Amino acid sequence: MNVQYKPKRNLLGTIFQVEILQGMALTLRKLFSPPITRQYPEEKPPMYPGFRGQHALVRDPLTQESKCIGCMRCATICPSRCIHIRCEKDTRGKEVLQSYSIEALRCVFCGFCVEVCPVGAITMTEVFEYASYDRESLYFNKDALLKNWDKFLDESGHGEDYVNPFWRPRGLPEAELPAAQRMKVPEDWTIAGQFIGTNLRSPKQKITDTHTEEDHA
Given a cut of 80, is residue 209 above it in pLDDT? Predict the structure, then answer.
């Protein structure tokens, strides 16, 4: 690693404090430049695909209940342990969701819960204006999460069957994705689009090459 040191200041620079004059000149230039501050809330910021906003439970368009099947994957992978789920078995032995809650104040908005959900039941909407003066209102239970979904659909104008194609793990082959996440996305969101100047090899071929290298070693 090459370390570049700042050249030693000469006598003239010490007397006139050149660095201070340079800083004042920069400030003066920016003083008369056009403003770049967005006048919020009159000017809303643009929402980009895959924005991680307010949590919501997606409603099933047929049953109008949550799509959650109680697989516990989201609660297991959550690094901040802010997801709490309780399920009970019905008379047929099938897991039925009883309660689902998220402590939004503990969430780090990593999006892992959305990526691992096999049925697309949990999502992070484009809603970001939900500040509060108390902690209880940011503890979303099942009913609150379903209402968050309804609010998102009303404000965005999407239909009940809306699914954002960016709510999926980035870089996985489509065959390894759950059926709910197999949607068309831009090329740079696929595993093939993230390799430049190299030939993409299949996961099985990579594993075979790794074992071959270990055997030679």
Answer: no
